[in-house]
Design a protein that fits this description.
alpha+beta, 9 helices, 22 strands, globular
């Protein structure tokens, strides 16, 4: 839709043009390209009702014996349960200054470039958050203050410098104490409603600088978790929740007590102090013993050099773009090794925590959502997706998602602890 004069620029024409623009582009290229696990996980974008039910059978019948009478006497049924998945919500917003859009209302479509840049940035942020959540434990914690930090200053160092990928300038941050109430690792609530705002990120050193001292937040201490404002305890349960490092207690996880069988929470291999390639192969054999066909190993870029060097001649070959995003024309590069039940693609993901790697069977996972993750609100509906701001000369465009991850066979997936 061409907009060639100031007289045609109004909320209706803006909205119509933007709606047409985003319907004509390949949305998946914006969303999945840099985030392999988010891209490759099977998706169900038609979630209706609540909750989504993820059934699982974790034991066959006990009524079996080499003795007929004994088998009958052991009469019983298979063991089944169901995870009742509840949705999580996530939002990002783009604000479009009306004066700027009017000033760029030229025949060459400059106004569209101005408008779509901000909307693209909201889509990118929503996509990054979803990609991070795919590895999360549901807490929303994106980093930890190192023991060497001084919280009475404006600068802290992250316990893992590679977590700096989760931060950017102008983020509003809250702190949460270590504990067991949330994801088995964090206290029940943030330390205070007070936030600090990021003014600088040094990705070389893992230093995060804020506009005020970190102890502006009452109780701030080294070892605290850092979460973006409004996120704590409200995020999607990703790999870190479904296949945790520590054995779950009887605390219900989506209505299921997982403590009775590791088939409900996955396998674990301690790779600390073990040559990396040996840890990976041992974990693959461990899963094969359980009946799994592990096909993908996901780890952080920081760990990739160590593994590739360790594999040496053991790696079979490299594949360029053969690991595919679900429902999109996107491929990811991988190194392939021969696993016990077939080839295993080794893929790097920027949001995989550096202290772990995940060995998975992809078809056991599903990302359930109501429409796409993310989507522009009302882009497919009759109502306009641009809203006038009541107190400023600008428009608001909302991007977000309603989603949850489910796993039909947690026991066919493994977490390898690396540090």
């Amino acid at each position: 839709m061409a907009l060639t004069s100031e007289t045609t620029l109004n909320l209706t024409s803006y909205a119509a043009a933007i709606k047409q623009y985003y319907k004509n582009i390949d949305f998946t290229q914006m969303v999945y390209k840099k985030f392999p696990f988010f891209g490759m996980i099977p998706k169900n974008e038609s979630w209706v009702g609540s909750p989504a039910v993820q059934p699982i059978t974790f034991a066959t019948v006990p009524s079996a014996s080499a003795t007929f009478a004994t088998g009958q006497a052991l009469a019983g049924s298979s063991q089944q349960t169901a995870f009742n998945l509840t949705q999580t919500k996530d939002y990002a917003f783009a604000y479009l200054d009306r004066a700027t859009m009017l000033a760029s209302a030229t025949p060459d479509g400059s106004w569209m470039k101005s408008a779509t840049h901000e909307i693209d940035m909201a889509i990118k942020e929503a996509s990054k958050r979803a990609a991070f959540d795919c590895f999360g434990d549901g807490s929303g914690v994106i980093g930890t203050i190192s023991a060497s930090s001084t919280v009475s200053t404006t600068v802290i160092t992250l316990a893992d410098p590679r977590q700096s990928a989760n931060f950017q300038v102008n983020d509003a941050l809250q702190l949460v104490a270590p504990g067991t109430a949330v994801a088995g690792a964090w206290a029940a609530a943030v330390r205070a409603a007070t936030t600090v705002t990021v003014s600088a990120v040094n990705r070389r050193t893992g230093q995060i600088t804020c506009t005020a001292a970190w102890d502006t937040i009452s109780g701030a201490a080294t070892g605290d978790g850092i979460a973006k404002s409004g996120d704590f305890g409200l995020k999607m349960s990703g790999l870190g929740a479904w296949v945790p490092l520590t054995t779950p207690t009887s605390t219900a996880f989506f209505s299921v007590d997982r403590s009775s069988d590791s088939r409900l929470y996955g396998m674990y291999f301690d790779g600390r102090g073990v040559p990396y390639e040996e840890a990976l192969i041992a974990a693959a054999n461990q899963l094969a013993q359980e009946g799994s066909t592990p096909d993908t190993y996901i780890h952080n870029f920081g760990n990739n050099t160590n593994l590739i060097n360790a594999l040496g001649a053991k790696k079979t070959y490299m594949r360029e773009g053969e690991v595919r995003a679900e429902g999109a024309d996107i491929g990811y590069s991988s190194v392939v090794i021969e696993g016990p039940n077939g080839p295993i693609d080794i893929v790097c993901d920027p949001f995989c925590p550096s202290n772990v790697g995940y060995l998975i069977q992809k078809d056991t996972w599903t990302l359930y959502s109501r429409e796409g993750v993310p989507h522009i609100f009302d882009i497919n509906g009759d109502s306009g997706q641009m809203l006038r701001q009541a107190t400023s000369d600008s428009y608001e465009v909302r991007v977000g998602s309603y989603k949850q991850i489910g796993c039909g066979a947690p026991g066919w997936n493994s977490v390898i602890q690396l540090a």
